[in-house]
Amino acid sequence: MSATSDQVCISMSQRNNNGLPRPSDNSTKTFTEGDVLSFHNIHYRVKVKSGFLLGRKTVEKEILKNVNGIMRPGLNAILGPTGGGKSSLLDVLAARKDPRGLSGDVLINGGPRPANFKCNSGYVVQDDVVMGTLTVRENLQFSAALRLPTSMKNHEKNERIDKVIQELGLDKVANSKVGTQFIRGVSGGERKRTSIGMELITDPSILFLDEPTTGLDSSTANAVLMLLKRMSKQGRTIIFSIHQPRYSIFKLFDSLTLLASGRLMFHGPAQEALGYFESAGYHCESYNNPADFFLDVINGDSSAVMLNREEEGGEAENAEEPSKRDMPRIEKLAEFYANSNFFRETQAELDQISGNQKKKKKKSTEFKDITYATSFCHQLRWISSRSFKNLLGNPQASIAQIIVTIILGLVVGAIFYDLKNDPTGIQNRAGVLFFLTTNQCFSSVSAVELFVVEKKLFIHEYISGYYRVSSYFFGKILSDLLPMRMLPSIIFTCITYFLLGLKPEAASFFIMMFTLMMVAYAASSMALAIAAGQSVVSIATLLMTISFVFMMIFSGLLVNLRTVVPWLSWIQYLSIPRYGYAALQHNEFLGQNFCPGFNGTVNDTCNYATCTGEEFLESQGIDTSTWGLWRNHVALACMIVIFLTIAYLKLLFLKKYF
């Protein structure tokens, strides 16, 4: 084969006496710094459920099978077809897979991974999880504030941030918002570099990236890999999975790991891979992309793949044992690699590393609890600040809700304007108070998005050691849930109370405002309890809506609760609208007179069934004592505590592995 200097595949003149290519500049490059990561006999299995309902079965599926290798300072690429296990291997090496079903050892410089390995190493997920409403600099400041020790002075942290911005070429967009689906922001490449920058804040010696070119055009993808190449020359060990890179990207690789069906097809210097496949009988045509060629060989679906032995009349192939001839292609490639010099040399190095590890007799600490660089209060302050900035930067979620509340308050005020103290006033008061209660419940359904939308962001930041679960939970409650439920309740009360002409007493006004807040908080807490850990907003919204519909039936308006059969009447104690509606009725009807000229004396007569508010409350089974009012608020407070506890526990025990 004759090849020009521009050709992708390696010519025979470039090969050594064994038929393998001579090491290129990339493959022989040595690094004086950086960590060496080795993995020994990695097996990873997951339990997959199949079937439906009663016929549902749990089957164990093997994702990785006896995977071994060494990753040194430089660019270490993990390549393979979809479903081959490359992302799973990356997560195993980064200590981000569930240890259940995982066996084997991952060592750093011949020793076990430190307890804080997930925090000290960098990990860039495939989908860029950065706060889009913040600027590039603000995102980096958040990472620096929570991941760098508090003993580090602010000017030192800012210097680190400026250095990262300059290193990544983000100077021009440092003060630009990253962008969301509603806000125009930086480009895809700049967004990816921002994600990388958040991991570089801690200056990790090992950096993991899950398909860093996903969603990028070829030019931008090449620019990102060139950036990673420059970083690797500083002594960093960069390990990443990638799918079908172009040749300009492939030639940057120092090490290549080929995976298919969870088994190793090749592991060694990237520039020697073509020679390895040549010795296996697979020939790469001139100008063909090596990455595409490898995948074609593995999948066996390309006309560009040609057995060299066929040129000799196919005699060697016919002489092959029938058992090997019938073996699947992946099995053949895995067996060929197991018998290759690459495998033997790698295994010899791994055995030496394992021997040194056994002598040290160190206990592995890779799955111990995370230790954080900052305190709970420090984390709470920064999470609250970021959440509040996100709230202000999201007008669709904040300003729109306030505008809708104002319009709805005016409409309700116009419909029930100036309630009269006559029998019609009883019906109208009962109706508007019921509407106010149920409106607070259904408007709180939007709280389901609080934890669902940011689920990926939360999992990534928690695993990376940004903050504790408790810091994140209370930070979101203080900065997002409290103001977004308090402000609409205040606005709604101020508009409707005076338009409706409700009881002209200051105490009653504030009790109504407080009651609506409590209903909103209870309903929102229930939404969080249902939605925490969910991945789909629509499912959580559906569950909330169904729950509130049943609660409305037992609120006290649609059916008299004293007439409900005993085996169903207990449901009323689980109804949020019931407590809010009962409190509003107690607050409004107590002391009211709905019969003109009736003073309640013995000599007076009333032509109506209900003349006083007390009579109406008694007919509804509502206690007219002071405790009859406040026990509703106590019940709502208990429900808030219970639901928030459930939401917190669901976050705490959420599966935080990829």
Gyration radius from CA atoms, angstroms = 33 Å
The total of beta strands comes to 12
- Major sheet size, sense and barrel closure: 6 strands, mixed
Give me the side-by-side strand order of the main sheet: 6-7-8-3-9-10
Question: Helix segment count?
Answer: 25
Distance between the termini: 45 Å
Secondary structural class: alpha/beta
State mean pLDDT (0 to 100 scale). Answer: 82
Quaternary structure state of the chains depicted = single chain
Q: Provide the β-strand percentage band.
A: 5-15%
Low-confidence stretches: 1-32, 307-326, 361-367
Helical residue percent band: 40-55%
The outline comes out as elongated
